[in-house]
Amino acid sequence: MLVVARVTNVWRFRLPLPHLKLHFSSLSQPKLSFQLPYTLDKENHDFLPWLERKAGAQVSSLLSIGKSSYGRALFASKTIRAGDCILRVPYHVQLAPDNLPLEIRALLTNEIGHVAKLASVVILEMKLGEDSDWAPYISRLPQLKEMHSTIFWSENELEMIRQSSLYQETINKQSLVEKEFFSIRQAVERFPEISERITYKDFMHAYALVSSRAWGSTRGESLIPFADFLNHDGNSRAVVLNDDDKLLSEVIADRDYIPGDQVLIRYGKFSNATLSLDFGFTVPFNIHDEVHIQFNIPHHDPLRRMKLEILQRHHVATNKDVLGFISFTDSFTIKEVRSTSEKGKGIPQSLRAFARVLCANSPQELNDLAIEAEQTDGRLARRPLRNISREIEAHQILIARTNQLIEEYEASIKSLVPGNSPLVSETLALRRQMAHELLNGELRVLKSASAWLKNYCTTLTTIGSHL
What beta strand segments (E) does 122-229 contain? Predict the structure, then answer.
């Protein structure tokens, strides 16, 4: 049984209840985690019967589509016990890349990703409209105007997040989508009735739908109708399972539900950067936020070549610049440090090791680090330096860098303060709020790292004064 993960793409909005936890549904608005008045969703009462007719099997006898105060959801229609299978969706009623016509599939090489192939499936079904066998499902997917992935942001909107690594990640993904689009157009150009249907705008829309909704599977990526209505609870242990023997996806309840309870599953753990890029929303105070921080060895460092060689010898990523010279520029991922008194979990050991190499000021110090690595587990500079002053200096390098970033983040956040102009669109207001939550979360991570590093240096200074 294969466990698969997924997170939804929704239109987030502000609620007048600040202490309530939000959950997100793939085809609906955010939901609240407590019990809300439950009514049947009359607009979708025919969806499950349609899916079961198409499947030739029962998908669920325990769930019904309903509406909470904030949109569509799945609710228990009968008593559910922990361990009950609450839904089963056969593979043949899931959309996957192999739904493409055989003659088209044969033209798409392995260099074209599963997401792009599935996006092509979605586009072709969209173009068929009511003639599509999948019309009841396709028609319930969000429209382009409802999507807020950063790949849809204007240049001015992207400027709001330039401080974050998400800015470059967005540009990279836009380039990837464009590359995939032209690869597919070129592959199917002998079928003008198909190639003419695939416009770049439609492809971006479909690509974003798949990125935010598809579940990983042995078929590559799959869109699973009806499962799209399940909302997220980060504390839930229920997940989507793929059974390749029975050729179906299923969900097993992790707790008891009484009729009228909203049924929840877990999608995954993602930072606001990932949520913004792939799903088009953010959450306030996201505990999974992280910051990508870059370091390099200055060209004026007299030991630069030796440091690069040692880093390369011990399998630290290096690369060649445009002139063919070896260089080192790497990105380290920092997560929030929960306590200044603990071991600094959240600050990667590889970053602290790099700082130790960076602060070395003699060939002997570098040789000592290399010898120590060879005598232990092969990892370079993973232990505190014996020279306390040098260990403090290494971590002060990190403090200086994080403090610089903190100042830059604070300036970026300050620039996001909205004006009182009534001309600001709802879309811009929403994306500005996303940028605010993204930058605030990453600033919180940086401040936690800086606080731990300062405390570490203070502790070392105290120890050194007693020696």
Answer: 215-217, 220-222
How confident is the model over 251-283, as pLDDT tens digits?
Answer: 999 999 999 999 988 777 889 999 899 988 888
Name the pairing type of β-strands 264-265 and 231-232. parallel
- Final residue in a domain of this structure, among 254, 279, 304: 279
Whole-prediction pTM value? 0.83
Residues 264 and 296 in one domain: no
Whole-angstrom distance, CA of residue 51 vs CA of residue 62: 15
The residue segments making up the domain with residue 274 are 93-279
Structure-token match 């709802």, residue found: 426
Please state, in angstroms and rounded to a whole number, the distance separating the CA atoms of residues 188 and 180. Answer: 12
Say which CATH number the domain at 364 has.
3.90.1420.10
Residue 42 lies in a domain: no
> If you search the block for the tokens 């990526």, which residue do you land on?
221
Domain assignment present for residue 401? The answer is yes
Instruction: Give the span between the Cα atoms of 403 and 294, in whole angstroms.
Output: 14
User: Which domain-ending residue is among 231, 249, 279?
Assistant: 279
Residues 262 and 329 grouped into a single domain: no
Rounded to 5 degrees, what angle do the CA atoms 440, 444, 447 make? 135
Q: Is residue 47 part of a domain?
A: no
CA atoms within 13 A on the CB side of 280: 32
Minimal CA–CA distance to 147: which of 276, 255, 311? 276
Can you point out the beta strands (E) in 69-193? Answer: 71-76, 85-90
Q: Among all chains, which residue has been given the structure tokens 């904030």?
A: 70
The β-bridge partners of 249 are 89, 242
CATH number at residue 253: 3.90.1410.10
Report, in angstroms and rounded to the nearest whole number, the Rg of the chain calculated over CA atoms: 26
What is residue 222's three-state secondary structure? strand
322-357 pLDDT, tens digit each:
334 444 457 899 999 988 777 778 899 999 999 999
